Amino acid sequence: MRRKILCVTLGLALATLMSMSTIGRARATVMTENWIGATYKGTDAFYGASVTAFEVGSQATVIIPFYNNWGSAVSVSEVKIVFDWGGSYSSGEIPSGMTIIVEAGKTKTFTINFTVPGTSTASNLFAHSYIISVVHNRTTETTSGYNFAVYSADQVDARDLKTTISGYGLTSGYFHYAESKMLWLKSENETSAGDRAYGLGDFSGAKAHYTTALSLINQALSAEQSMGTRLDDAQLKNAESTANFLNAGPFYFGIAAIVFSAGYVIKGIAALRRPRTE
Q1: Which of 57, 90, 154, 178 is such that its CA lies 20 to 30 A from the CA of 185?
Q2: Domain assignment present for 196
Q3: Is 172 domain-assigned?
C-alpha cells in the first residue's frame, strides 16, 4: 500500500514538473532576433557553418522582438545581450531605473547597438555564442544564439575579393585564344589557392591569392578582347580588299576591252597598208 502511495506521489510530482516545464515554454516570449548591418551573412568555409559576421570596429545592431504572452501587462526593466567573450550590451531605450510597459498580446521591439571588439577580445578563429535576456516584473525571459563571427580586416578583404571573382561567372569556354586561355587557367589556380588558404585561416594569404587571381582574370579578358579585335580587323581588311577588287573590276575590264579594240584596229590598218601581190 505504501509502495502504491509512493508511486502515485512520484507520478503527481513528475506530472507537475512536466506541466511547469510546458508552462515555461509557453511563456518564452523573446522572438527571433534580427541582425542589421552585418558585413556578411551566409556559409563561411572557415567556420564550416552559416554565420552572421561583423568586421572588427564596426557597429553591430540587433533587433529583439518581445511578445507579451502573459495575459496581462508587464514592465520591462532591461534588455541585454551577453557574448561568450564576456561582452554585455544593453538596450539604450530603457532609461536607468525606469521600465517600459508592454501590454498583453502586444509585441515591442528593442534595439541594441555596440562596437565589435578586436580579435584579441573576440577571436575570429571560431564563431561565438550569446544569450539575450528580457527582464520584466514577472521573470527573466532568455533566448540563445550562436555563429556570430568577428571578421578581421584581411578576412573582409578576402571575402570581398572572392565575391568579386565569383561575380564574373566565367568558365574556360568563354576564352578562345591561347594567351587568354592561359591567363584564365592561372587565375583559376590562384583562386583555388586562395580558397585553401581561407579554409585554413590564413586570411592574409587568401587575400594575396585572390588579388592575383582577379588581376589575371582582367588580363585574360583584355587579351581576349585584343585578340578578337585584331582578328576582326584582319577579316575586315580582307573583306575590304575583296570588295575593292570587285568594285574596280568593271573599270579594269573596260580598260582591257579598249586595249584589245585598239590592237584590233591597228592590226586592221596594218593589213590595209600591206602591198598586194599580183
Answers
A1: 154
A2: yes
A3: yes
